Amino acid sequence: MLKSWIPNLGRLRLIVQLLMLLATVYGGVFVGHYMANKLSNALPALSCAYDQMNGGYCMMIRSQHILHHQVGMAIARAHQITFAIVLPLLLGVATFFAFFFVLGKAFCGWVCPLGTLQELAGRIGRRLGIGIRRVEPRDLGPVARVRPVKWLILVVLVFLLPLLTGLGVTPHSLGNPFCDVCPSRIATTLLTGRTDQLALNLGNGWSFGLGAVANWLFGFVVVGALALRQPFCRICPMLAFNSIFQRLSPARLVKPSRAGCGNCRVCANACPMDIPEISQAEGKKAYNEDCTLCGRCAEYCPQDGVIRIQWAKVTLFRSSREYYKARVRGELPDGTLKPGARERGHD
Asked: What is the pTM of this model?
């Protein structure tokens, strides 16, 4: 029988998520706000810079500020293009790679505070008996239509508008537009007891519009996550940003071949991102750009060793029939609690 190093991947991931939620939202309380800034200027997860208690900043705010305050403004004043621009940019990218090299896409599935909050909302929804709504993986159409959105947000809100603002083409209010609409800004600051990020700026049309979108997105995530798994993750530009470099990280999802695959599609049903490729493909194609390395597909694969989570050549977790049998006693692959599971206390 194939055995993995991790007896219960789902429970371990929940513990890590909760610890990372505390670290990313309240970490600055322990090390100080400015020390948190020094610890990380480029964390590849939605750790909000507006949260004054956090333990590290999101790569998105770092990228926007570099493009707005450094690259864009410096290009407008060409004589200032010096190492004062290039060096901070390189350091920001280097910091990102240092973090990303270790965990890769797992930052989305294990560390991101907004991802954790969405999963917790989903658990609450199941406890309340709210049925799960899914994008049917048998039909790639709906999935394919949603996937480009995160790339559009990354290009326009994270890269293009901050750069144009630095060049003086667009208003100053568009200097960091993604942060202005990001629901993590509202969610994590509310966890620290602050409500000011909910307020709308009535004196500036652009700021008012972006704030209104942010409030709408936050409401959509709170309500939508009760029934739809990881609604914001599907359009998150951080997922797109991380996917650009996912092949460079030693942390990855591995499905070498479909030789032992029973074509049961259980892994696709278990995927909170509704990725059909995990059941339909093999090799690199099975590790799709939307994957967050949460490991649910490996947990719910009923075949021994077909799907694995690896770091370089080391297998951290592999699918197992015995593990699958134990897992489905309390929760079905799609996240639905089995009848009586709530009374028995199963997750």
From this structure: 0.78
